């Protein structure tokens, strides 16, 4: 040992500095030794794992079929119990369909696919060899999965993958009617009276006072075969302003009656009911996402995520003084992705 009584940290030997102890540099230990799995050494274990994977994929297929049974064969009635049973079948079916595929693939990878750790050195790829190299890589991947020599796994996987997306497609289809004839028109037409919601009482122009607002449905809606579906498209808000405050665009001068205007109640964002009317500002508000429409500017959007105005219903007064529609809406009601031909 030397005399370190007057040594600094850099000379006393208490602090390692660059260049010291190079003989003790960290050595690359390499890859750890490979430990074979039971399925790698025992053919019976390999066959058992293959069957387990196939069973999991089959469970996925059965889950999809369970979903379809609940969706198509359990008929809903007035009983809440039937609805609960259907929801149970739909939920369990979807869960087994997704879980079977997910767990099956994980079990397949952990027990049957190669688990050797490998290092692939970076190398320069010549452009003319790209296709050949890519084909070889794909071939190696397919070979490593063992799917060619395990037809049981292959067939059950194909069946599970083919059926699993179908419940999602069916559920998306059931979210609402597709754009088509069912959405092209509402019950409004020339001569159809405006009536109060929900009583169905016709409304006279003299009933609508300045600053008032009515929730309106077309006459005959309460007796319609598909009442809820028709109401979802045809509900209207009826309000009266000072005629001098309205700013109709060319061609819409006769769509109102002495300051009385009617607009679709369905928000053009995602279809929520617009139900709040601010009399002093003449604003209509959607409570779902705060879209705000200016009644004096043909319900133009002044705030919120909606991108187009509320459709206006052209109205007039009949010989008895009742408010009537002069036509259906001339543009689509509801969210902006709905289109008419």
From TrEMBL:
Biased composition (Polar residues): 7-17
Keywords tagged on the record: 2Fe-2S, Cell membrane, Disulfide bond, Electron transport, Iron, Iron-sulfur, Membrane, Metal-binding, Oxidoreductase, Respiratory chain, Transmembrane, Transmembrane helix, Transport
Domain of life: Bacteria
Protein location: Cell membrane
Listed transmembrane segments: 53-74, 86-109
Chief location category: membrane
Molecular function as annotated in GO: 2 iron, 2 sulfur cluster binding; metal ion binding; monooxygenase activity; oxidoreductase activity, acting on paired donors, with incorporation or reduction of molecular oxygen
Topological type in the membrane: Multi-pass membrane protein
Domain Rieske: 233-324
UniProt region (Disordered), positions on chain: 1-45
GO CC term (a single one): plasma membrane
Stored SUPFAM superfamilies: ISP domain
Family, as annotated: Belongs to the Rieske iron-sulfur protein family.
PANTHER family found in the cross-reference section: CYTOCHROME B-C1 COMPLEX SUBUNIT RIESKE, MITOCHONDRIAL (PTHR10134)
Purpose of the protein: Iron-sulfur subunit of the cytochrome bc1 complex, an essential component of the respiratory electron transport chain required for ATP synthesis. The bc1 complex catalyzes the oxidation of menaquinol and the reduction of cytochrome c in the respiratory chain. The bc1 complex operates through a Q-cycle mechanism that couples electron transfer to generation of the proton gradient that drives ATP synthesis.
UniProt name for this protein: Cytochrome bc1 complex Rieske iron-sulfur subunit
Organism whose genome encodes this protein: Arthrobacter caoxuetaonis
Species lineage: Bacteria, Bacillati, Actinomycetota, Actinomycetes, Micrococcales
